[in-house]
Specification:
Radius of gyration: 16 Å
Shape: elongated
Structural class: mainly alpha
Number of helices: 4
Distance between the termini: 44 Å
Number of strands: 0
Largest sheet: none
Length: 66
């Protein structure tokens, strides 16, 4: 996958696209297995980071600091 395509998929994931660019990204993800896998990896990373942050925020040290 080209760097330009990765940037497009990343921007789509981040909700930064509208109109034709959004449609282009959706089509790319739907038709290109590498783009689809890259999009899925972004979702996994995002979920992992959110879980890590939530666990960290629930720690006693953080609660005490807040």
């Amino acid at each position: 996958m080209k760097d330009k395509e990765k940037i497009l998929v990343s921007a789509f994931f981040d909700g930064e696209l509208v109109g034709d660019e959004k449609k282009e990204a959706e089509n790319l993800i739907a038709k290109n297995s590498e783009a689809y896998e890259y999009f899925q990896s972004l979702k996994l990373i995002d979920n992992d980071l959110r879980s890590h942050i939530n666990l960290a925020l629930e720690s006693e040290k953080v609660k005490d600091a807040i």
